[in-house]
Amino acid sequence: MLNQLKEMNPLIHCMTNMVVTTYTANGLLAIGSSPVMAYAKEEVQDMATAAGALLLNIGTPSVELTEAMILAGKAANKAGKPVILDPVGAGATAFRTDICHQILKEVDVSIVRGNAGEMAALVGMSGVVKGVDGSLDGDKQAVAKKVAEQYSCVAVLTGDVDTITDGERLYLVSNGHEWLTKVVGTGCLLGGVVAAFVSTVNKSDYAEAAAYAVSFYGAAAEKAYDKTKNQGYGSFAQDFIDQLGLLTENEAEQLRKVES
Amino acid sequence: MLNQLKEMNPLIHCMTNMVVTTYTANGLLAIGSSPVMAYAKEEVQDMATAAGALLLNIGTPSVELTEAMILAGKAANKAGKPVILDPVGAGATAFRTDICHQILKEVDVSIVRGNAGEMAALVGMSGVVKGVDGSLDGDKQAVAKKVAEQYSCVAVLTGDVDTITDGERLYLVSNGHEWLTKVVGTGCLLGGVVAAFVSTVNKSDYAEAAAYAVSFYGAAAEKAYDKTKNQGYGSFAQDFIDQLGLLTENEAEQLRKVES
Amino acid sequence: MLNQLKEMNPLIHCMTNMVVTTYTANGLLAIGSSPVMAYAKEEVQDMATAAGALLLNIGTPSVELTEAMILAGKAANKAGKPVILDPVGAGATAFRTDICHQILKEVDVSIVRGNAGEMAALVGMSGVVKGVDGSLDGDKQAVAKKVAEQYSCVAVLTGDVDTITDGERLYLVSNGHEWLTKVVGTGCLLGGVVAAFVSTVNKSDYAEAAAYAVSFYGAAAEKAYDKTKNQGYGSFAQDFIDQLGLLTENEAEQLRKVES
């Protein structure tokens, strides 16, 4: 799947938050896709139509940006391109939860990627979200399943073990490393990487492509940790970009820890 | 003080400029706090109330953002949380100086962190600010004292020697390295680090916590310079994040160069 | 020319896109200039007047930002300071092409820096732009010449070989490395580096200074590649900042590959 991505070099239209733009773009370049950021309502429809996938990340939300996201999302829908929603901080403020509901109402979202607290907030299950890193007691698989069913999408609930489901198929991914939580934007970049991989397959394969993306991403993090564990978070953040570019399809296959 | 910070893992609400968001977030994660960026007037009151401290950095200012900062600042005041103002470029344009005065009038600011030129601009003392790196002849301690007294706050005036005062107590910190001036956002991140440390103490200890933060920060820079002096500014920028995560309470104590 | 830049330490007013602000600032600091970002219409005239050069990069455009760019550009014109336009994604959407035309109509632009597709879009020659990385069949020199003549500016058309012309003089620069295309913002930072170098010379020498800047930049990339080719794109991105700070005037002279 990775080789196919590199060959297709898909254009990924990112409407993401202002904290993670650079890191998202560099990660997407490293894996062999072509990121473009565009936010203005005057151009997002053109860009979303031209792109292979659209990423909507509400990490630094505003009313104006939400309107532009919905315009872009509808254009992507019309063009048959996958839309990935990252509901950063849903549940942390009512404003963010409302924006997510508005987007999910107006746009046919293909994938939702969030942590347990954010995903729970989308389906009215109580959770505690601290900043953008949520934690939740209870059954993460049940939350993911509810998101998938309620919004007819693939749910990608990330945590120690990542849960991917379309409501029927279930993938549990154990790749990754906790140092990812010490670098800002790693969750957001994962949303972009998922977008890149799903842009290369048919809709019926979105769940599998998402699981592949999450495992690939986690495997790169494991390699980065092995290399930089004696250095620190700054070195890890940089080396992770190295590894996203170096990791091969074969190696990703060998490191893959996915139950389904 | 560092161990307490790591244990409390405070949420720091950053309303900072668009040049330094990533670096600020990664630095705050490294020391053990939890950064969140939120700018929209619809949510900043909720976020500031939930957070342990609020950072207002006017590095890329706008009228709309100023309004949101004042809303957030008032909410933080009401919730009894410290507000840290970083008056980036005050004195460089009238617009920035005016914004600072507006914030200082409407919000009870706990800490102001700036260079000599910026601090001088806040209290009507002439200075020359070149870009965001100001220089000033005259007595920096007098300027810091005037800021502290005029705005009933702790003044953190950074430079070769950093001056911290609440108008009565005075701390002079000699930690740090000039390579910090070759990496964008190191002053801005310091504002965030000060916010994180003061969020863990009572108001009467803000000056001492700020002095601790400035010394800790400078010590991490010294370590980063020792490690990367034969490499360059890019390596220093990254290694500094490593060191912010690696520096221990004991080591910070040993490296501490604070006169009071 | 580099030594002169370091001695003058010019202030470069950057109105650039939100993806590349940090990298642009760190690159400009590394070479010895002093970057400042300012976007609000209330202050851009003051900042552009005070600065040594103004960079207008439309990578994440909006109507409001365009208005501010035109205000800043006119102020720079009035103050006799060079204006550098980076038409990111011109041709990719009508919105971006229109913004460029608007700026070029209202502001006396000194330098335009873009890839082949973007430059072609500015002068109505058909091209295909994929994301922000354009490709174009046909004669790049002809496109550059047309841009230079139509807008009475220096055209800097970057690609495998970089073409710099003011319509009469022609410089072909072979420095650089393709890994630059795997790191976001390297084209944008080049616009800033060109701004820094042209700010140190008279208008009649803009073309030569731009060619010097492009060669210097490419030489630093070659050194960074030599050092990090076994590591990856993340390491290259960081080491490139190191090399921008380390490269000396003599070394740049030795590595220089410019035909004219």
TrEMBL record, chains A, B, C:
Coiled coil: none
UniProt superkingdom: Bacteria
Binding site for substrate: M37, G185
SUPFAM superfamilies: Ribokinase-like
Pfam families, per the entry: HK (PF02110)
Pathway: Cofactor biosynthesis; thiamine diphosphate biosynthesis; 4-methyl-5-(2-phosphoethyl)-thiazole from 5-(2-hydroxyethyl)-4-methylthiazole: step 1/1
Cofactor: Mg(2+)
Entries under InterPro entries matching the protein: Hyethyz_kinase, Ribokinase-like
GO function terms (MF aspect): hydroxyethylthiazole kinase activity
Enzyme class: transferase
Catalytic activity: 5-(2-hydroxyethyl)-4-methylthiazole + ATP = 4-methyl-5-(2-phosphooxyethyl)-thiazole + ADP + H(+)
Function: Catalyzes the phosphorylation of the hydroxyl group of 4-methyl-5-beta-hydroxyethylthiazole (THZ).
Name of the featured protein: Hydroxyethylthiazole kinase
